[in-house]
Amino acid sequence: MENPFRYGSIVTGEYFVDREQELAELQLDMRSGQNVVLVSPRRFGKTSLVLIVAERLRAQGVLVAYLDLLTTPSKATFANGLATALYRDLVGFKGRAWHKLQQFFGQKSLLPTLKVGPDGTPSIELGLGERSGELDTALARLLEIPGQVATDQKKRVAVVLDEFQEARLIDDHLPTLIRSVWQMQPDVSHVFLGSQRHMMQRLFTDKSEPMYRMAKPMTLDAIPSDVFATFIKGRFAATGREITGAAVDRLLEITSCHPHDTQELAYFTWNLAFLEGVVATQETVEHALDRVLRAESARYTEVWSRLTKTQRLVLLALATSGGAKAIYSESYRQQYGLGAQSTVQSSLKGLRDTELVDMIPPAKYWIPDPFLRAWLLRMTGAVTG
Ligand SMILES: Nc1ncnc2c1ncn2[C@@H]1O[C@H](COP(=O)(O)OP(=O)(O)OP(=O)(O)O)[C@@H](O)[C@H]1O
Ligand SMILES: [Mg+2]
């Protein structure tokens, strides 16, 4: 017997629920050469969504290249990663002669070397030095490839850059370089995925930013509770187990339908019910939450230890009040002992940079991680009695 819930990696098929509208919209955009920037808090399902769309589009003959910027910490590794993704997804490693590879990149005056990883995965190395001028020229040539493939092969092409909030860390001018080449490719769909909502949004909506108005904004919200409830019951039923309606309600109340955390808590709940051979009840869910918090506790303690005093107070305030629409107001700051407005402001900046706090425009601050909220609430419970 297998646990019917999955968390931590990308999900597809029976493990993936809802997002019908987002799937259809993204599919249409990517097929139409529309640029898209897809933003959500961490672990809301961006990568899963885009990879499902990519599979569907490939089945329709659209070429879709995908690169995760977390795997390319420098400009040179970004160039290698992009070369690999473009060749793998637009041409394909299988059954291609070595000279084809040379030819493909040779047109761009690039000299590829084929590497094979321990697991047999091929990758391309361009042997570029860290000299900035040379690298920029090579990168610009690489970035031209999607447009050229689209023209030469008369095919629809889409390129996905995941974890795009990392672009600036790779190199401060990388977004500028990407824009300068990709704005000349009207028929290619460029898709940018990222968390760190405020940073991503600024990059694409601030007039002074290089990516300003380059892509259509799309956001992923939590999954609607009725859809998630049906999914959870269905997954239990598919394994011959049962969960009460009240237990599902409690589970979704704890996670506020956060996709990853709902799957995680459901996973622990199913395990407990299975091992004890019982119907999952509200009590089972509470037990499962204990287990999850115990599993996550070391991580949260580590995070907590690195925060300033005001950051800790702000987090506790947000956990207790369930978010705040007027965090800077005199009354809110006084109620939770937060101190001066300027201190709260700088604390919030740090908390948002590390994604512990998120802001929903115009000004609602909240903690997007449900288990961190639960962990904080337990801590205040322990402190106050
Ligand atoms: N549509 C969905 N249906 C069910 N579970 C989902 C769905 N989307 C996401 N999840 C859950 O969330 C987890 C994270 O999904 P995914 O990695 O696609 O999100 P992400 O937004 O790309 O995360 P990250 O911020 O880490 O890049 C999955 O392992 C799964 O448990
Ligand atoms: Mg992702």
Furnish the topology, listing elements before pairings:
Blueprint: H1 20-31, E1 36-39, H2 46-59, E2 63-68, H3 75-91, H4 98-106, E3 113-116, E4 122-125, H5 132-153, E5 157-162, H6 167-170, H7 174-182, E6 188-194, H8 197-205, E7 216-219, H9 225-238, H10 245-255, H11 259-276, H12 282-305, H13 309-321, H14 330-335, H15 341-353, E8 358-360, E9 364-366, H16 370-384
Bound molecules: adenosine-5'-triphosphate and magnesium ion (MG).
Describe the overall structure.
Helix content is 55%, strand content 11%. The protein is α/β, with parallel strands linked by helices and 385 residues long. It folds into three domains: 19-219, P-loop containing nucleotide triphosphate hydrolases (Rossmann fold); 225-302, Helicase, Ruva Protein, domain 3 (Orthogonal Bundle); 308-384, Winged helix-like DNA-binding domain superfamily/Winged helix DNA-binding domain (Arc Repressor Mutant, subunit A, Orthogonal Bundle), CATH 1.10.10. The chain has a five-stranded parallel beta sheet with strand order 2-5-6-1-7, sandwiched between helices. Strand 3 (113-116) and strand 4 (122-125) form a beta hairpin. The longest helix has 24 residues, at 282-305. The model has no long low-confidence stretch (mean pLDDT 94). Adenosine-5'-triphosphate (ATP) binds at residues 6-11, 16-19, 40, 42-48, 195, 259-260, 263.
